TrEMBL record:
GO terms for molecular function: aminoacyl-tRNA deacylase activity. Residues 23-139 form the YbaK/aminoacyl-tRNA synthetase-associated domain. This is YbaK/EbsC family protein. The lineage of its organism: Bacteria, Pseudomonadati, Pseudomonadota, Gammaproteobacteria, Alteromonadales. InterPro entries: YbaK/aa-tRNA-synt-asso_dom_sf, YbaK/aa-tRNA-synth-assoc-dom.
């Protein structure tokens, strides 16, 4: 399929330099990082949320972290829940199902960015299919996300009593 038209058009219109990185087919941003040999903390994933009024929000966080909905709610001053994948996909008509670019700006979606991504020299995100990542250098990523809300709302997953538990 290639890079989503909305993503390439947005980046080009904003004068944002980017590269495209190919990798074998994967089902998640974390798998894409592993498959492409990119540090997991440099790959941004998009998590689609909605509040009690049905307003949508894209949370952008490192692929190796989990969202803390309570903390995000405190930052945004409203509660959120995860959107169903089928409903989230409706906002991305030029993307393959499940391959959401962490570039809500290209789809007129409000975005909140986890500050853990600010520590990275470059950031990658799904290009709209399951085999390409968009690569942005830190200045380009900062320019794209500069007007959006920022905060620390993710956490590293931890193991608890031998079971995987997201704390």
């Amino acid at each position: 399929m290639g890079i989503a038209i909305s993503v390439s058009d947005y980046l080009n219109q904003q004068g944002i330099p980017f590269k495209v990185v190919s990798h074998p087919y994967t089902e998640s941003a974390l798998q894409s990082a592993i498959s492409a040999g990119i540090p997991k903390q440099q790959v941004a994933k998009a998590v689609m949320l909605q509040d009690h009024e049905g307003r949508h929000l894209m949370a952008v966080l490192p692929a190796d972290r989990r969202i803390r909905l309570k903390r995000l709610g405190e930052i945004m001053e409203r509660d959120f829940s995860l959107m169903e994948e089928v409903e989230a996909a409706r906002s991305f008509p030029d993307c393959q199902f499940g391959a959401l670019p962490a570039l809500g700006q290209a789809y007129n979606l409000p975005v909140v960015v986890d500050d853990a991504l600010s520590d990275q020299e470059r950031v990658y995100f799904e290009a709209g299919d399951h085999q390409l990542l968009v690569q942005l250098e830190k200045p380009a990523f900062d320019k794209v996300m500069g007007k959006d809300r920022h905060g620390r709302f993710s956490v590293q997953p931890t193991l608890d009593y031998g079971q995987r538990r997201w704390l």
